[in-house]
Amino acid sequence: MRVDGLRFQPRASIMPYMNEAFHLARLQKIDSQIDQIHQRLAEIQNTLDRDQEVLLAQSAHSEAEKGMRAARQALRSAEEQVEGQRMKIELNQAALYGGRVRNPKELQDLQNESASLTKHMAALEDKQLDAMLALEEAEQTATSAARALEQAQGAFATRSAALLGEQSRLRKDLERLQAERDPAASQVSTNTLDIYTSLRKKKSGIAVAGIEDSCCTACGSELPPMEWQAARSPNKVAYCTNCGRILYAG
């Protein structure tokens, strides 16, 4: 058999290193722990970088601020329309009662215009009142969103402290495991170590499998007696003929 160009016997081969399977099993255990730590560290960093509760609170606060700005602009626009309408009414009233217009038809037109302007003013004032109420509601929403964001950030700070503590402990564990890995790897021949590394890449990080009830614990296939007996030998490295992993009988 070959693994990434490396030739090895599918059942067992006599190696110059004694009890390589034992050291490979130990190496596998260390590497699996290292993999788990790397995965957890990545999860912690992702949480620290993108806390969902804070992100949601920030989004809600941003939307509330945007809504409040829009409500303020709507109120300013309504106020400007009311002020403009008031000026029109004042001009109309000045013309109507200023004494300069004496023609009955023109006076009637001014009176009709005055009624229309007054009616429209009432509608504009209602619109202004609605805008004032909308702004008050938007300001309350923005205040609540700001308070929620502050609370989310406070809770995140508490969670972050715990996560940072865990992160520190995991990094120390990682240093310890790296220090343990080198002596274990040094007990394995270069060729077998290359095979182990290649299998780790191909087999989702699991290159060494145990034997339970005469079966490979990784793939579940039943092993022939000769194969699991070979796996028990301290002088040989045996491989599962089904999944190709290194066998360790314990």
Protein model, in words:
The strands form 2 sheets. The protein has a 5-stranded mixed sheet with strand order 3-6-7-4-5, with helices on both faces. The radius of gyration is 40 Å and the shape is rod-shaped. It starts with a strand and ends with a strand. It has helices at residues 20-49, 52-97, 104-186, 190-202, 225-232; strands at residues 2-3, 6-7, 12-14, 208-212, 215-216, 236-239, 246-248. The chain is built from 5 helices and 7 strands. The protein is 72% helix and 8% strand. With 250 residues, the chain is of the alpha+beta class.
Unreliable segments of 5+ consecutive residues: 1-17
Principal-axes geometry comes out as: rod-shaped
Number of strands: 7
The succession of helices and strands, N to C, reads: EEEHHHHEEHEE
N-to-C span: 24 Å
Biggest sheet character: 5 strands, mixed
Number of helices, where a helix is a run of at least 4 consecutive DSSP H or I residues: 5
- Round the mean pLDDT to the nearest integer and report it: 88
User: What is the share of helical residues?
Assistant: over 70%
Q: How much of the sequence is in beta strands?
A: 5-15%
Oligomer class: single chain
- Using the CA coordinates, give the radius of gyration: 40 Å
Reading side by side through the largest sheet, how are the strands ordered?
3-6-7-4-5
Protein structure class: alpha+beta
